[in-house]
Amino acid sequence: MGLEPRGLAALAALLLASAPLPAGAATFMVNSTADATDGSCGAGAGECTLREAIEAAVATPGRDTIGFDPAVFVLGTVTSINLLTPLPFVADPAGTAVDGSGSSVVINGDPALEDGIVFTSAPGVALADVAVTRLRFGSFPGHALRICGGGPPACDGDVSNATVARVTAVANGSDGIRIEGRVVSGVRVVDSVVHSSGMVGIHLAASQALLGARVEGCTARLNGFDGVLLDGGPRNEASSIVRSAAVQNTGRGFDVRGDVVVGPELAELVSVANGNDGVQVFAESTVTSVAIADSVAAENAGNGFEVLGATGHTGTSLRGVVADGNTPHGITLVGPVEKARLERAVAIENADGGIALLESATKVKLSDVVALGNVSGVYLRGTRSSARRILAGANDDVGILILENGSRNSVKQSTAPANNTGILIREPSTGNRVRKNSALGNVFADLFDQHVGCDGNRWRKNVFRSAVDPCIR
Amino acid sequence: MHPLGARRSRGRWLAAAACAAGLLAGSSEAATFRVNSTADTSDGACAAAAGGCTFREALAAAVARPGRDTVRFDPSVFPPGAPGVVVVQQVLPVISDPAGTAIDGAGAGVVIESGGGVGPPIDPLVFTSGAGAPLRRPAIANLTVRGFLGTAITLCGGELPGCDEDVSQAVVENVVATSNGADGVRIGARHVSKLRIAGSVAAANGGHGFSCDVESLAGTRIERIAARDNAGDGLHFFSDAGGADNSIADSIAIRNQFGFYFTTDARLTKTRLTNVAAASNLQSGIVVGGPELVDATIERASAASNLGRGIDVFGAREGIVLRGVVSNDNALGIMVGGSPLSGVTLTQARAAWNATDGIRLQSSGELVGNRVTDSVVAGNGEHGLNLIATTATGNLVSRLRAAGNNGTGILVDALATGNTIEDSQATANDGNGITIGTGSTGNVLQRNTALTSDATDLVDGSATCTNTWTSNVFESSSGPCIQ
To answer: Which one, of A248, A368, A229, A342, lies nearest residue A298 by Cα?
Structure first.
């Protein structure tokens, strides 16, 4: 006969009381703004500096927490820790949490320093569960916040499940927030702001693979390179950037890249006045299943939206995107594109194409698109693509253009008014269908097939006034 | 559907019957006259023989007959794709018939062009109904009118110049009016009802692209129009006494004065703009309003690089909805004004890189019960969202993101009572993050994030704890009770 349940509970309680405390449960509370160390993080007033708290956390195995005394770091009153010498690395493979919740903490660098807070494990050792919450970093010559699998400079350990939340980094010399490792997985940066960094605002980098990274609710402004860069190295899989803004960065607003990029999700982004592309997904090799939705890219000195897969490009979807005033293209898919879908898009006054498929494309579906005042409204290239319900007007050159070697594409139920040429099929494209469109008020020609006799292109039931080939109807 | 609707088949039958009989107009009611010459001469008859009917003769014949006649064009003379050009040397007859006349180039390619220096007519195509009579069902479709000194196409209820009678069920479809000295298409009347303008282009005209200056306007449908490079507005619709149930869809306006200008001096109800885009106009891109604007919806509209406001809605009273609108790089992104201003729903809007505010709701009096939700304002030259009024009561700002604006992210510049700002972000703004005005009470500001403001993240203009701030994320604040 066994023990009664109550007896089991009592035994368990006894065992727990007599066991050593589990490693990594310690919390160290910073209660001083000074930057000094006497080797201990005391509980007395002013007895624990950030430096001492980090030393204590590093010395204590397990996942410790560093907090900040709200009586010292009063919420709403900016309270600064001005560092005089480099902080020790927060070196613990189990991860450490630094949490400024409920307080206002600013950690300031100095020209003599390099990075701000650096989390590490050990060379080649994985780093897990780092969490940084509610801190502000400023004026570090290097990176403000760095989470490095293994240790710098190699950062050759894996990083998993790191979370950076409500962190701000302003006026740092290199990246604002940088998370890097061999395989970087499950990393999240949320509700954070990076402003005036010398390099990238938020930079997630992996030498082997970036898996499931998520940037959400972040703002990157006036950084010296990209606003947000997710670089997976050989593989970038299931990255997402949502509800974020990139404004006036010198490089791209949002950049997701890798040799192979699979399944990135970018939604509810605003990318404005950046020095390069507004939003880019870039793969040295193939890019698969890109989803970009409900986003705006305006006045960027690069393409508004660019999805580039150098050797292959499958399953891209852009829905509800707006690209205004970008140089050169508003929305462009680069590389051999297959099975892409672009719907409810607007491209206005971009310096070249509103929507441009620049290389071979197969089965690309465009629908419900407005392309206004670009050089050309919509470029199609390749085979078996369709453009439906396109409104391509007042573009300087062509409203809807099927480029050279296009075949079996269709343009249907679209309107191309007041361009130079309304709808144009370039030679030697054949087998394309242009039906039930309206092209009026175009300066050179409403409809133009460069093939004499159309050579297999079928023009039917279009509304137009001028055409450069009698086979056009 | 054919622009002239069911009349088309009847017209064809009539034309065939007329030709078979050697007559062009064999009925005492509607007849079809087929233009088969590009010349601009008249021998007084529109004959079926080759070259026997000029455009001028067809118009004269149609005017001479009562009933709703149709003028069509012989595609062998006016081939589609290589349009036949009628070079007009003298003033064309006014198309005066209260039953309306249809001029339809369907199946043909037709250009009506000014003869230049040889006595160029001022307004080439003028539809009227005569003194005291309304004009019903005039239609013009499928042709181009270009190069005249005056307005290309005029639909005038009554007679010129007053145009003080009604116009109903007018159709302008697949028409191009380009390089004319005044308006491209102009409707002048007392009341205009069930006007339809579709698939048409007005470009490089000296006046407005599409113009309608009337006493009242009801049941208008404008769709798939393009207005480009007109010296006046792209579309200029104004009614003295108001309007109801009017819509504009799938249309564009670029490089005009105003892009779309749809206003009244009275009450405008049930106005709907869908999928319109206005860019690089010299003034505002899209303007809708009047002293009393009720039940208006602007949906999926885009305005970019206009020198005035991107989207300007004024006189808003109730039932005003802006959904999915985008306004970038204008003098001001989205402006909604009224006094009082109430019942506005602005959702899923985005306004970026405008020279002043991204979104502004403004009243010289009260701002009551308006909602701004699920929107983004970024990189604007002044404030992201600016609520300006004497008093602001019961307004809601929810899930707004204001990032990187040169002024304050979210500003309530009013004596504010009972407003809610929640679940919003104001980040990296050069001014404050969120500011609520001096003397404000009973407002709730909760679950917002305001970070890295150059000035202060959260600012409460009240010196005492009269507002409720809870669960906000911020670094700096000005106000005793912010949390």
So the answer is: A248
CA proximity to B409, closest of B423, B425, B395: B425
Residues of B in contact with A418 (CB under 8 A): 201, 203, 226, 228, 252
At B435-450, the pLDDT tens digits run 998 889 999 999 999 9
- pLDDT recorded at residue A6: 37
Alpha helices, DSSP H, located in A245-294: none
Q: What does the alpha-carbon distance between residue B212 and residue B155 come to, in Å, rounded to a whole number?
A: 9
User: Pairing relation of β-strands B70-73 and B102-104?
Assistant: parallel
* A408 in contact with chain B, both atoms CB, cutoff 8 A: no
**Tokens in use for A451?**
């093939």
Is B432 a domain residue? yes
Residues 304-343, chain B, touching A (beta carbon < 8 A) = 304-305, 324, 326, 328-329
d(CA B35, CA B55): 6
Share of chain B above pLDDT 90, in %: 86
Residue B147 forms contact with A (CB below 8 Å):
no
Average predicted confidence (pLDDT) for chain B: 92
Predicted TM-score of the model (pTM): 0.92
pLDDT at B70: 97
Question: How many whole angstroms separate alpha carbon A405 and alpha carbon A407?
Answer: 6
Domains in chain B, number: 1
Mutate to test the interface with A, among B111, B179, B451 (most CBs of A within 10 A): B451
Q: What is the pLDDT of residues A268-292, one digit of tens each?
A: 999 999 999 999 999 999 999 999 9
In 3D space, the residue among A83, A130, A90, A127 whose CA is nearest the CA of residue A107 turns out to be A83
Query: Which CATH number characterizes residue B409's domain?
Result: 2.160.20.10
Domain boundaries, chain A: 23-251
Assess A233–B contact: CB distance below 8 Å, yes or no.
Answer: no
The predicted structure's pLDDT at residue B329: 97
Cβ-nearest to A346 among B228, B254, B326: B326
One DSSP character per residue, B293-348 reads EEEEEEES-EEES-SSEEEEEEEEEEEEEEES-EEESSSEEEEEE-SSEE-EEEES
Q: Is residue B101 part of a domain?
A: no
A271: phi then psi, degrees, rounded to nearest 5: -130, 115
Structural tokens at position A60: 């204590």
Best of A389, A465, A469, A473 to disrupt the B interface (most B CBs within 10 Å) is: A465
Nearest to B199 among A77, A136, A440 (CB): A440
Instruction: Verify whether the Cβ–Cβ distance A370 to B280 is below 8 Å.
Output: no
Low-confidence ranges of chain A (pLDDT < 50): 1-22
In a domain, B405, yes or no: yes
Whether the CB of A275 is below 8 Å from some CB of chain B: the reply is: no
pLDDT digits (tens, 9 = 90+) for B53-76: 999 999 999 999 989 999 999 999
Which band of pLDDT confidence, cut at 50, 70 and 90, is reported for residue B360? very high
Selected for mutation to probe chain B from A135, A197, A270 (highest B CB count within 10 Å) is A270
**Does residue B199 fall inside a structural domain?**
no
Buried/exposed B76-103: b ≥16 CB within 10 Å, e otherwise: ebbbbbebbebebbeebbbbbbbbbbbb
Interface of B with A in 36-55 (CB under 8 A): none
Q: Which domain holds residue B344?
A: 308-483
| Chain B nearest C-alpha distance from A360 (Å) | 30
Helix (H) or strand (E) holding B103, with range, is strand B102-104
**Partner residue opposite B174 with nearest CB, options A268, A325, A440:** A440
Of B176, B348, B476, the CB nearest to A465: B176
**Does A465 contact B427 at a Cβ distance shorter than 8 Å?**
no
